[in-house]
Write a structure and sequence with these properties.
- With 97 residues, the chain is an all-alpha fold.
- The protein has one domain.
- It has 4 helices and no strands.
- Helix 2 packs antiparallel against helix 3.
- The protein is globular.
Length: 97
């Protein structure tokens, strides 16, 4: 469910950028960024994990540490689905969310 929501949000941003004749942001092109697992891996690796690693440095404690561990667990799950042949259905992705 969360994966679908963020993907819809990213695609809406890309659509707005396309209408404004602007370069389309990474993960936001509904015609190019169609590999859900690959997009999620990139989002986790380049957006989420660096953010929470920085939080962990500033506010050490169980919340940030557990969050980074959970992000790593999610990355491993999405890695298993990275190839198109293994891509999850919406229902499978919802279970992972």
């Amino acid at each position: 469910m969360w994966t679908e929501w963020i993907t819809d949000e990213f695609y809406a941003l890309g659509d707005a950028e396309r209408r404004a004749d602007l370069p389309i942001s990474t993960f936001c092109d509904r015609y190019k960024d169609t590999d859900l697992a690959r997009s999620q891996l990139g989002f986790l690796q380049y957006v989420c994990r660096p953010f929470f690693v920085a939080i962990q440095r500033v506010l050490p404690g169980p919340f940030a540490s557990a969050t980074v561990t959970r992000l790593d667990d999610n990355r491993r799950c999405w890695s298993a689905w990275e190839s198109p042949a293994k891509a999850p259905t919406s229902e499978e992705a919802a279970v992972r969310a």
